[in-house]
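YM 10:42: Sodium/potassium-transporting ATPase subunit alpha sequence, as discussed on the call
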Amino acid sequence: MDRGGKRGKVSPHDQHPSQRPQKEPKSRQRKKVKLNVKRGKKKKDIEELKKEVVMDDHKLTLEELSAKYSVNLTHGLSPEKAKEILLRDGYNTLTPPRTIPNWVKFCKQLFTGFSLLLWTGSILCFVAYGIQVHFHQKSDKDNLYLGIVLAVVVAITGCFSYYQEAKSSKIMESFKTMVPQAAQVIRGGKRMQIDVQEVVVGDLVEVKAGDRIPADIRLISAQGCKVDNSSLTGESEPQSRSPNFTHENPLETRNICFFSTNCVEGTARGVVIATGDSTVMGRIASLASGLKTGQTPIGAEIEHFIHLITGVAIFLGVTFFGLSLALGYGWLEAVIFLIGIIVANVPEGLLATVTVCLTLTAKRMARKNCLVKNLEAVETLGSTSTICSDKTGTLTQNRMTVAHLWFDGTVHNADTSEEQTAKFSKSSDTWFILAHIAGLCNRADFKAEQEMLPIAKRETTGDASESALLKFVEQSFSSVKEMREKNPKVAEIPFNSTNKYQLSIHQCLEDSSQDHVLMMKGAPERILEFCSTFLLHGQEFPMDDDLKNTFQDVYAELGGLGERVLGFCFLNLPSSFAAGFPFNTDEINFPMSNLCFVGLISMIDPPRAAVPSAVSKCRSAGIKVIMVTGDHPITAKAIAKGVGIISKGNETAEDIAARLGIPVSQVNARNAKAIVVHGSDLKDMDSEQLKQVLQNHTEIVFARTSPQQKLIIVEGCQNLGAIVAVTGDGVNDSPALKKADIGIAMGITGSDVSKQAADMILLDDNFASIVTGVEEGRLIFDNLKKSIAYTLTSNIPEITPFLMFIILGIPLPLGTITILCIDLGTDMVPAISLAYENPESDIMQRHPRDPKTDNLVNRRLIGMAYGQIGMIQALAGFFTYFVVMAENGFKPLDLLSIRQEWDDPFSNNLEDSYGQQWTYEQRKVVEFTSQTAFFVSIVVVQWADLIICKTRRNSVFQQGMKNKVLIFGILEETLLAIFLSYTPGMTVALRMFPLKITWWLCAIPYGIVIFIYDEVRKLTIRNRPGGWVEKETYY
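YM 10:58: structure's back
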């Protein structure tokens, strides 16, 4: 197995030096590095990358570590050895993925999905025109114009979609910004700074506060070292680092530092155990860039729609091709008819309508703090059936906040809302002293020039817990700055993981009876060890068993709420420690026993105010919310209960066991609706066990999870047929964000990597915004259905004239140019206006749609559009057509089988029903006038169709006419029809002629019939849910 840098596998470095590849000839070495740099390594097996990090370097003794990597732990590698390893393993860089060129992306927009259907229609038009030109000296150019228009429509829409799409392939570029540029190494006993890409496995490196870790390193020494792992593990607080092995899991042990994380305090020295793609960060990068994402739900729906429309078009085309031959038409005419019917079924304006509708919704979502990068993700969020949410910053406020205080024998509630106005009694002398200790024995401070901001929103220096205490005292007591000026600090022992306490000594006020006071805070059990008395209502009392028992109960209660608890105590130093006393914190020269215990303060990152109602909305909408966090199970469970992910009354197996007083092993797991799964337990589960957890529990929390586990959870949900949305903000979340049906990154706290991997960005980092997005996604799916139903309905009155032209032999009732005027003219704005329609009352009460059965275009929608409303519209068109023809002398029965003579340019004496003769030019004026009337009748009945398409279940009277864009759409299509009918020159340009006012009125009764018919249908659906009418007509 190859090791290190560009050639690492699952286990970073588990070979004995003797098993390593031998040194190769220099020519081959140079070639190898060249290949490594230019081509990168071969693609890793994604399934291998999904496995947990396997290494044992954190368990090795220093002697074993030195032997494994052939490195002297004092002098480091020799320069020659380092060069040899660099030649073998390649540079310490991340392999860039293969990216899709922009021209390929552009072509995908032009030649896939709906565009392909329009291109097919365009090509068929050109074929039909070619046949006509070849076999007829003189031929009308309708098919040529239609072919050109279709090509232009698809090209313009393709360009529009290409520029709107923001699905980025820049994931690796974001990783590059995280890679440090230089590293401090020791080689041959000399300290030197080198380019980070030249760091090799076995190098002895040094890091200090402010540095980025140049590779995965095993620490051999550390002085107060803390690292910020938030980008990797999601843990918000800096993590202590030491040479000691503290945990089996390499991600949680303290003696490993990871590539690209930040050292925020102290210094450390360590041996490089992995470089480049073999690092934990490298594995995540490879996993994120190598994952294949599936087709979006809306993409699948459009594909389904294309298949449906294509099937209908081909069926009708072939049927009437055969009928044409049976009626005695020649094969050339039959082929022209075949192509004409197929093209007539293509909804030319629908591609543009869908694209514009999605774009409008994306802009509306952006105003509601949901920035959509990929247009198709707009609808995907609406289809979501499972949300895997991160905890910190999404469900919570991402700020440690004081939650409870215990002093004077009472637990006090502190307000954890964004305003944080503490309402407990502040008159106690004990509270006075507790507030002073919390403010003075504290290294946090406010950053400069923030006085105008609310205290809760001010930025601080210092860790999260101390910042929480600082803000709490500032809000609830008085100015900490003034407090510190009155009681300056003269000595301090900072908190460390060994002592588990922080100590500071302060000068007292001039009028005080003593000169100095010692204050201490830290782990409660540790603080209690230093105390012999406790403070009650400002008076000191000897420590007794009752107080210790009460202390243990309160500590356990607060800890059980997932809160971080700190204890506080103080000691008034005797007069021997006068002003100017030289306190020594290295060799302690002051008392540290017999302190007075004051109380406890607990902190938590509290839930956002809007989250509980948002989770409740998800439950009503049939959406399962799963918490996936890297935090401790107790904290995760507490927050889950606080926001309603674990609802009131639902128990975990542990809760049931505690209630019944039995071991957890005796509880039937299926009786517990809720479950909290620890990452270590998840690690031991196979796919079937994970499936059982996801299926058998309605309320789930995954705690202490790794990036790979988050990905496995997402895949587990998808394998059960769920449409999965995932939230995340760190680098560790990027594989899951990429794999999810919709990845949601945090706009404020999110890393660049997570934002690049996601489909959507929450601009306010608030879970409640996701629920708003779900509603918008459901709304656009509903409105797209309505828009498609509206658009498809006019297909029947567009197709039937052509069919009657073939079957009955009547003059053509509706021309190709006139059809284009409908599809790309009068129907476009009204169809788009439906994207602005308000949601119906049940939109967030129904369960997520089933992608297998609840399609964008289904049998019922086709049945309604083609078989019912479309047929009524066709009747309106033919009625108007026959009225115009009759008023011009041609009765309906006399029009039958007249087509051939009517279209004969050499026949100039055709008699009408009254014996009057008509020339070819005169007949064509009547034909084009009747076609214009047919066109106008479609516009009139489309008024009614647009109004009934406002709702699928509710009455239009319930919904109201508040959609101003829709009202404008009705006005626009009417004015456009008037413009096309009466504008001088249209008789030549589009062959449209002026109409009598009475001809506009012919279709109005049919519009009224459509409206009444649909209102009765919806009333029946509401009154008889699940009945025959709903099953057959509710689309």
